[in-house]
Every structure is written in C-alpha cells, then in structure tokens.
Amino acid sequence: MKMMKGQVVLNMPAEKAWEMYRNNEIISKINPELLSRADYIQGDGAPGSLRLFKLGPGVSNYVKESMEKIEKVVSGRSVTYEVIGGDLKEMYDPYRVTFSFVPTQGNSNKCIAEWKAEFEPSAPATPPPEQARDAALRFLESFDNFQLSY
C-alpha cells in the first residue's frame, strides 16, 4: 500500500482543533471554498459511522463528494476513514485517510494537524493523491482563521 502525508502547525490546542473537526456544523463553516458541508448520515462519529463530505468549488474539479466510513477513533487525537463512495473511490481502492491533532511539546496552545492517506491506485496511470493532500492541508490551515471568528 502506498502512503502520503503532510502536516501543519495550528495556533490552538489539539482538543479545540479536534472538536472543530468532529462537529459537522463548525467544519462546514471553516472554509466553504474547500468543504461546503459535512453530515453524519449514519451514526454519531464512532467507528462504523458514515460521514458524507460535500466539497466546495475550490476542489470540485477534482472531487465533488466523498462518502467515508469511520474505522478508528482515538478520542481527542485522530480519526481514520475509509472512502467508500465518491470520486476518490473511483481513483483509489482502497483509500484510507487519517486526520490527527497532536499537542506540540512545550506549548499546549499549539498543535500539529496531520493528514495521512494510504491508497492503491485503481488504474496504473492514476497519479498519487497530491491534490487531495494539498486541499486537506489548506483546509487544516483554515482552522486558525476560523477560530478567531467564533
């Protein structure tokens, strides 16, 4: 299985970033250009739940929506999804993403937000999901600006 990852430093505690990521109402307002809506369509965010992400106009030429099944949750730290429907599922099978929020050492008011994907291209010519990584990191960077407004 291939892997790709990236990370950004956020100027907020990991717990706050975690709460923002897990709350559909908040996450849908952080950066509508990249993510216009998130809904748990089955479950409440625990393993086995299904979450639908509707992507915004900034990435809709690449991915319009993604249906994800939550596989693992480490409360306050990370969530791992397997993409089970949408555009990414057609390009990669499997496609598994982990978002994690880890406090920085020596400063509890900052955290490292990491995006990691494990994937197999569905066709030999399918490129790595660099656009997905770049969009995810831009979205995570938006957390800092959003937290100032709510």
Describe the fold and architecture.
The protein is α+β, with helices and mostly antiparallel strands and 150 residues long. Helix content is 26%, strand content 47%. The protein is built from four helices and seven strands, in the order βααββββαββα. It has a seven-stranded antiparallel beta sheet with strand order 1-7-6-5-4-3-2. A hairpin with a 7-residue loop joins strand 2 and strand 3 (50-55). The mean pLDDT is 93.
Overview features:
7-stranded antiparallel beta sheet, alpha+beta, 4 helices
Q: What quaternary form is this? A: single chain
Q: Using DSSP, what is the number of strands?
A: 7
In terms of DSSP E residues, the strand content is over 45%
Mean of residue pLDDT values: 93
Largest sheet: 7 strands, antiparallel
Based on secondary structure, the structural category is alpha+beta
Query: What is the count of DSSP helices, taking H or I runs of 4+ residues?
Result: 4
State the end-to-end CA separation: 40 Å
Shape summary: globular
Biggest sheet: strand arrangement = 1-7-6-5-4-3-2
**N-to-C order of helices and strands:** EHHEEEEHEEH
The gyration radius over C-alpha positions equals: 15 Å
Low-confidence stretches: none
Quick rundown:
With 150 residues, the protein is an alpha+beta fold.
